[in-house]
Structures are given as structure tokens and as C-alpha cells.
Amino acid sequence: MPTSSPTLCGSISIRPSQFGVTMHNAGYKALGLPYVYVAFGTEDTRAAVEAVRSLGIRGLGVSMPHKIEIMQYLDALDDTAREIGAVNTVVNDDGHLTGYNTDWVGAIHAIEEHTEVAGTRSIVVGAGGAARAIVYGLVKRGSQVTVLNRTASKGEALALEFGARFGGGVEALGAIPEADILVNATAVGFHAPDQSLIPSPVLRPGRVVLDVVFVPPESRLIREAEARGCVAIRGTRMLVHQAAHQFELYTGQRAPFEVMEGAILAKIAQMT
């Protein structure tokens, strides 16, 4: 007897990676779902959207630089994707494509495993795509956010857009009043375990520190934060939370978080 084809999901990037493939396929296998996740490499955002429609791809993860351009080709946007101004997830409901942003969900859920965000003071270092989603999420949850960035114009624009304040460059960390949450939202430390933008003296005991870097899982910032008594949150935790939210949008099933996390940690261990 003929068997039905699996439901296809995937991701688009100029340089496709296996991170999403590893997490999603591990989740599908754990739940016995007839889904398969594939990474696609492309520079043509519009053609990718057309392929989603023509091939009936159920869900699509979107990486930079496609996150902004793809918005114009979709049929609808979730409120948070519209407010953030970027889409990292597309869901195909019988040809109707809706864009979502799960990046902010990943960061906030990772932080909220350790502390309530409402009423806190936060510092976010960086003004790129990750910083944008994180600043949005922290402000949305009721934190007073200060943005630090080397390029003042970018940091000021990000802070102004989301109701945060701009505090200067990273060198201003020591002069900023005590903050409860500190986030490195830059790529410093990625594949560079001895690099960190954050001077260790500002890593005070009890402060929640999130590093978006996930290769290696224990970045220099994470190691120093743990050594100084901070609540250190690895970038892998944020990565899996955002992927789990994607998984649930695609399948309608609760994501097997521990399975997905174990799969990505094993994958990264093979790389490092």
C-alpha cells in the first residue's frame, strides 16, 4: 500500500546550519510525528516563499538576512512580529502564510525560568537582530531596559523604538545603576571561548546573566558569571525555547523540550 509523504518543515538561510534540523527532527521522532525538517540555503527570499506555497511546506524557520524582507511576501503577521519588525517563523495554513517571531519568546522564557521580569532593571549589550527581540521582550514584560552598543546611533534608535534608554558603549557598564538582568546580545564569544565583552567586575552575585552565544555552550561570559555567583543562562537554553515554540506552532503538540535540548547539546559537543 502507498504511504503518505511526511509533513515538510524547514529553514532558510544564506549559510544553512544543522541546529534547527537537529532539534526539530529529534522532537518529531520523540512524539512519533510524521514530520521532517530540512535546512535550505538561498539568497532569494521571494523565491523561498513561493516554494513554501507550491510545495506545501508547513513551517519555515527564517534566519538573517531574510527576517525583514520576508514580511512583505506573507499574508498575515502576528502582532509581536509586526511590533518587532522581523519574522523568524512562518506557518502555512492551507496556503495562508502567517509570520511570527519566536526569538523574543526564547529569551524571555529562558530568563523567566529563574526570575520574574516585571519590575526589574535590565541591561542589553548589542543592537542587532537578537538584541532587538530581547529588548522588545523585556520591555513587554515590564522591565526597565538600558541598551549599550558600540555604535551609538544604532543603540539610540533601538532604545527609542521600544521605550528603553540608551546608556552608551560597553565601557559604561560600571557607571550604570545596579541591574537585575544582564544580556550579551552580541556575537562576541561565538566560536571564541576566550572572548567576552563584559568585564568580570560587573558580574555581581545574584545577577541574572544571559549570553545569546551557544557555541560553545559555556562561553567565557558564562564561566565568569558562574564563578562570581551569578545566575548564568546559556544561549542554548534560549535557542531551544524559541525552537520549541516553533515546534508547537507547526505541529499543535507540546514540544519535548528535554529531548530537543539533549539533541542540540550533543550536536554542539561534536563540533567543539
Structure write-up:
There is one protein chain. The chain has 272 residues and is α/β, with parallel strands linked by helices. The chain has 2 domains: 128 residues, Rossmann fold; 129 residues, NAD(P)-binding Rossmann-like Domain (Rossmann fold, 3-Layer(aba) Sandwich), CATH 3.40.50.720. It is built from 10 helices and 12 strands. Helix 1 links the parallel strand 1 and strand 2. Helix 5 crosses helix 9 and helix 9 crosses helix 10. The protein is globular and about 60 Å long. The termini are far apart.
Q: Can you give me a brief rundown of this structure?
A:
The chain is α/β, with parallel strands linked by helices. Helices cover 39% and strands 20% of the residues. It has 10 helices and 12 strands.
Q: Please give the largest β-sheet.
A: 6 strands, mixed
Distance between the termini: 45 Å
- C-alpha-based Rg, rounded: 19 Å
Q: Would you tell me the overall average pLDDT? A: 94
Entry keywords:
single chain; 272 residues; alpha/beta; Rossmann fold; six-stranded mixed beta sheet; six-stranded parallel beta sheet; 10 helices; globular
Secondary-structure blueprint of this entry?
Layout: E1 7-13, H1 19-31, E2 35-41, H2 45-55, E3 59-62, H3 66-69, E4 76-77, H4 79-84, E5 89-93, E6 96-100, H5 103-112, E7 121-125, H6 129-140, E8 144-148, H7 152-162, E9 165-168, E10 181-184, E11 208-211, H8 220-227, E12 231-233, H9 235-251, H10 257-271
Parallel strand pairs: 1-2, 1-3, 4-6, 7-8, 7-10, 8-9, 10-11, 11-12
Antiparallel strand pairs: 3-5, 5-6
Helix pairs in contact: 1-9, 1-10, 5-6, 5-9, 9-10
